[in-house]
Amino acid sequence: MSNSDFYAVFGQPIHHSKSPQIHQLFAQDTQQIMDYQAQEVSAGLFKKSVTDFFEKGGKGLNCTVPLKELAFEFATELSPRAQCAKAVNTLILQKNGCVLGDNTDGCGLVTDLTQNHAIALKQKRILILGAGGASRGIIQPIMQQVPQKLVIANRTIEKSIALALEFKSLGKIEGCGFKDLKGQSFDLILNATSASLSGQLPPLPNNLIAENGVCYDLSYGSEPTIFVRWGIEQNAHKSLDGLGMLVEQAAEAFYLWRGVRPNTHAIINVLKQKSPEQI
Ligand code: ATR
C-alpha cells in the first residue's frame, strides 16, 4: 500500500466492479492523490474487515451487495438519507474517529436523470418496479423532486404496500402488484427489481409508458438490459440503463471524502466506450 489516502469498495461478488476505475478517473480529473481498491468481503467477515480497514488508516469505504444493511448497522453516525434508506453505501471516517454512514444511490439516480438526461421529475407520474433495498434507497430523493404521484409495484404485493405506507409522510405514494398497473400510464418507469440481472422482465401491461415517457433500469450491462429493450419496444422516448447512476453515486461519495466534484460527463463517456471485460 502506498502512503496516499486509501479507500475501497467491499462486496461479494466484487471482481466485476467498475468502482476502482471510476474513482481512479475521478482522482485524475481532480488531481487527488489517493488509492481505491475492490475487496471481496462476505457478510460474515464484514465487521472485522471494516474495523481492520479503518484501523490500518483507510479514509472511506463503499459497500455494495450484500453489505449495505450491515454498513448501516456498523456506522456510528447516519446521514438523514441513510436513515431513510436503512442502507449505507458510503462510510466516511470523521476527524473525531467516528464513522459516518451515508447513502448516495438515490442522489446519484436523480442527478443522472435531471442533469445528465434533462428529465424533470416535478409533477411527473413515476412508477418504481420492485420493493427491495434498491427501491427503498431511491424513494426519498425522488419524493424531494415533488412528483405528481409515485407508485411502487412489486411481485410480492405486501412488500410494496408496506413500503408505500412507510414513506407516506413524503407525499402521494401507492403500493400495488403488477396486475394493478393495467390501464395506468407513467412519465417515468424505474426498474429497481433484480430481475434484469437474471434476464427476466416483470410482467408489465402494454401502454404503461405515457407519451414522451422514459424507462430507466437501475441495472446496467455491456448490452442493453431486457428492461431497456422492453422500453425501446414499447416506444419510450428514452430507455436508459444505470451506468450514469453508478458514476453519479460514486461522484457523490468522492465529494464526501475529498470535498471536490469530478467531471462525471467525461467519465461516463469513457466507460460507455469500454466493455465490462476491459474495465
Ligand atoms: P435489491 O437490494 O437489489 O433491491 P432485494 O432486496 O432482494 O434486492 O429485492 C429484489 C427485488 O426484485 C424485489 O422487489 C423482488 O420482488 P419480490 O419482493 O417479490 O421478491 C424483485 N424481483 C426479483 N426477481 C424478480 C422477477 N423475476 N420478477 C419480478 N420481480 C423480481
Structural class: alpha/beta
And the CATH topology of the largest domain? Answer: Rossmann fold
CATH class bucket of the largest domain: Alpha Beta
CATH architecture of the largest domain: 3-Layer(aba) Sandwich
How many beta-strand segments? 12
Mean pLDDT: 95
Q: Could you give me the name of the CATH homologous superfamily of the largest domain?
A: NAD(P)-binding Rossmann-like Domain
The hetero compounds bound to this protein are: 2'-monophosphoadenosine-5'-diphosphate
Which overall shape is indicated by the principal axes computed on the Cα atoms? globular
Helix-strand sequence: EHEHEHEHEEHEHEHEEEHEHH
Cα separation of the termini: 21 Å
Which percent band covers the strand fraction?
15-25%
By DSSP (H or I, 4+ residues per run), the number of helices equals: 10
Q: Helix fraction?
A: 25-40%
What is the topological layout?
Layout: E1 5-11, H1 19-30, E2 34-40, H2 46-55, E3 60-63, H3 68-74, E4 77-78, H4 80-85, E5 90-93, E6 99-102, H5 105-116, E7 125-129, H6 133-143, E8 149-153, H7 157-166, E9 173-176, E10 186-191, E11 209-217, H8 226-233, E12 238-240, H9 243-258, H10 264-272
Parallel strand pairs: 1-2, 1-3, 4-6, 7-8, 7-10, 8-9, 10-11, 11-12
Antiparallel strand pairs: 3-5, 5-6
The structure holds 2'-monophosphoadenosine-5'-diphosphate.
2'-monophosphoadenosine-5'-diphosphate (ATR) binds at residues 130-134, 154-156, 159, 193-195, 200, 202.
Compact description:
The protein is an alpha/beta fold and 279 residues long. The protein has helices spanning 19-30, 46-55, 68-74, 80-85, 105-116, 133-143, 157-166, 226-233, 243-258, 264-272; strands at residues 5-11, 34-40, 60-63, 77-78, 90-93, 99-102, 125-129, 149-153, 173-176, 186-191, 209-217, 238-240.
